[in-house]
Amino acid sequence: MQLIKIDELKPHEQNGYFFDDIQGDNWSEFLKSVQTSGVIEPVIITQNKVIVSGHQRVRACKELSVMEVPCEIRIYDTEDKILKDLLETNLRQRGVGNTNPIKLGRCIVELENIYGVRKGSLGITSHVDNPHQVTQKDIAENVGVSQDQAKGYKKLLTLIPELQDSIESGILSPTVGYKVLSRLPKEEQEKLISDFGADYISSLTQKKAQELISGLKQEKENLEIQLQQALNKSAVKGDLEALAKDTKETDTVSDDLTELADIENTVSPLENLPTPIEELKPTDDATDTVDGESIIAELQLNVSEFVKVMSKHISMEDLYEEFSKADKNKVRETIEDVEKVINKIKNFLS
After folding, report:
1. Looking at the 3D structure of the chain, how many domains does it have?
2. CA 182 centroid distance within chain
């Protein structure tokens, strides 16, 4: 250890990316401690006098006009080893870890990268000596959080900058960020801010945010289904026109086309559309207009689109687990309504 002039020391260029400066009352207390007791723990620096651990001590000394500070010089051969010590020593020495959720997420991700950790175990490209095979659980414990919390903090890094800023400033809860908003693609996060405003989104509780997102997703899925129904109806109309031309059964087909035109004039293409099966169901007056193959083809198309939409919900298992009992009952009732329709069609075939 040796005394080195303050103005010879250089801050690490990434320190601000991973850590905030101490602020407010905590900073006042820290200053008072340095003023009365001096710098007890030496500042750790590289052979090039770059600060690895002790940025706040050096900052305090500058503010108190202290000219020299005790330093421990360590020899490093890679930047990853410097970064490892920067992260680990600062997380330990600050006592409460990193209080900035976004920057804590950055620390966790960077340490996993340095140690080559992937999915809880040692990866194939560790950038530092790792004889004990450090895992995700080990890193989480070292930064003072549970493994689940560590996963949550990492998810915050998938948020768009506006949402990250709201979390860093304390306006938006990090829990809302990683449990709800991080599930959305970035373009949907941007649309959320554009439609509702950053202030409104930041004010939401986890429950309210989840209700908002679920409602928007349901509206989007309903529109997609209705749009597909409109496209299907258009296809059926084209088939009927072709059938009229080929078979010259103009009277029967003309009635069908007139009915379709009336529907188009009175009902929006995106709501209350009849299903293709209803349109193709033969009447007493026109039993030969559409054959069974057409009905089956349209049924298969509808089922395929339905399965595609519902597949999204299968991947949302974690989300459903967080639902209240009342919300779960609503989902069950909706599924039972679908089952009733399916059973009714099955009865047609028995």
Report:
1. 3
2. 2
